[in-house]
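new request in #modeling-help
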Amino acid sequence: MTHGPSLAPAFPFLRACRGEPSPETPIWIMRQAGRYLPEYRALRERHSFLECCTIPELCAEVTVQPIERFGFDAAILFSDILIPVIGLGIPVSFNPGPVLEFHIERREDVARLKWKGAAESTPHVKPVIRAVRERLAARAPLIGFAGAPFTVASYLIEDGRGRDLMRARAFLSRDPEWFARLLDVIVEATVDYLKAQIAAGVDAIMLFDTQAGLLPPTEFARTAVTAAERILKAMPKGTPTLYFALAPSVGHLESLRTMHADVFGLDYRVSVAQARAIIGGSHGVQGNLDPAVLLGPPEEVVVQAEAILRENGGRPGFIFNLGHGIWPETPVENVALLVQTVRRFRTPAVGIP
Ligand code: CP3
């Protein structure tokens, strides 16, 4: 847990990151700014995804759209885990998923990657975050983020037709030394990129490791967790850290126990109670409604959300979220209902049944 003085006001999200009790359960959702929102689709008719990530007024507009509509307890900077990859020297476009101009296949490709420092490699960070902060005002804290090293590496290696990360896992198995060098470059860039986000004014940072759970538990621990941990440890004290891996098994969860993240985002396939028991009480958790539930019917949204809240049983350090990103097909009414359900829910006294 991050301790020490904080100047941030008592936002429920930040209190939960610090493990402090709070009468309300904070809620935000992964990919909360995106295609399920009509106002996002309207803006995207006129501007490209990359423009929305890098032009300050557009990024501010998109980032606050879900805050204005639903009053979420946290905003997340509108960007993508592949944006800093452009700064490493690989042009990326989006259609809508990321399309890389070339992929990492050999050692020479790894050797070509160069991070020139955040100011040069990702110059949009400062003006964009300033604009978001201004537009957001004091309505909610702002989460900055990056992809975790294994997940970014897997996107650099896979060509989009990836079967269970065949290429990335084969690279790791045949050439662990150069896979480690690839992770080193990504770690160095990501630390610098996240520090730039913090310097520009984000309140917390989150690492997305959505591909890492495709590794077997021992390799997940040795490769993905170790690399993510190097970033987490390099973050300034006092900035809450969140780590989200699609980590579907007890074996995966066990390796989170000793990590230096304040909060772990939980996969929709694990139970909150079980995950908490495995990860241990000194960490918060975030999650983990199955995004499929938000497709309807509304009664089921209420039932499933309340089941998760009940399972947490009022323990502090809990942030309500989905167990993976929201789908573009999601009806906005169900999102509004979810927020209302979490807000209305009053937890029975803390105590484990
Ligand atoms: O949460 C938020 O609202 C912040 C924005 C955000 C985006 N991508 C916007 C986005 C975040 C945090 C991400 C993270 C991300 N990007 C991850 C990790 C989390 C996860 O969901 O697995 C990954 C693996 C990516 C890579 C990526 N970018 C993919 C696979 C896609 C295609 C998604 C799809 O549903 O088709 C993208 C594009 C992307 N990133 C979009 C958005 C809103 C859609 C772009 C568009 O508007 O056309």
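bot summary: The chain is about 45% helix and 10% strand.
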